[in-house]
Amino acid sequence: MMDERVLQKLNSIFLKHGVSISENEKNDSIDDFFGFDSISYVQMLNDISNEFGFKIKDEDLLAGKLTTFNNIVKYIHEHQKVH
Length: 83
Description:
Blueprint: H1 4-16, H2 38-52, H3 58-62, H4 69-79
């Protein structure tokens, strides 16, 4: 079961960047969301890494591990520091 706090925090970060994700869009590529450019994407990933306390590795970014909402949730669970 996904941690509800992680989902809420991630949703609020997406909303801050003008992206609202419905349940059936969580596996869609972030590139598909209207108005979401590469600068917004990088800023959003920076906010995510700051919020959850880890650095996103360049190789993970280039490997496309952070291209959908669900992939980002999985990445957070694999990399966030234990609080």
